[in-house]
Amino acid sequence: MRKDLLKEKKRRKYLKYAIGEIFLVVIGILIALQINNWNEERKLRKIEKTLLTNIQEDILLDTLDLDYNIKAHERMLKQENFLLNLMLSKNIGIADSINYEDALGYPLVSIIHKSSFHNMQNNFVGLVNNNNSLKKLISRHYDFFYNAIEILENNSESHDFYEKKLPYFRKYFNVIDEENVFKLNPDSDDYVQGEYIRRTIIPTNIDNLMNDESFKFELSEIILQRNIIIGLYRDIIAKVKIINTKIDNELTSTK
Fold this sequence. Notes:
By secondary structure, the chain is mostly helical. The protein has eight helices and two strands, in the order ααααααββαα.
């Protein structure tokens, strides 16, 4: 057709034909690019959905450990308050109502699942673009709240309440040949289970115990700090509920 047009010296028609060909080629390229962009966008949204789903599963799994630690702290806090009231009031009549094993307590650790969050940080920076507020909320949850609770529970000697109380219990208490069944997690079937034998602890020098001002001060500070930690745990669980709802909304909107 080009040759026929040129032979007939219909250059204007030839030019229109050539421009038409170029236009069709450009349109084809643009369509191909757009289809490729759609495919890439669809792949990214699929990765984003998987990433958000994994983070959601992680934070919901974390609540098992968080809830266990709250209950353990509350159980120990209750008996610490009873013990401090005994020491301050010097009312020996309430001594037999205290569970001294829980008043001594045991060490706790906080286990946080961070692999999905680290995957987002290391490999998919900027992926969660549709909802920047959700990305900020998730980042703050891990960078601040989870780091704070790990420092308090796992990495700070100043919050090792068991070690702080142990010297006083060695001084004023004895272990007797009476067994108590200690259940690691009696209230949930979804967490680590276990029953252990713990010997009964009884006070042996209660007068000196009630007059130990150093122990009173230490116990008072432990009670304050334990209340702060319980409050932080509750804040974290509240944040988990908010993040879970927002992820649900995001996943629904991207279907």
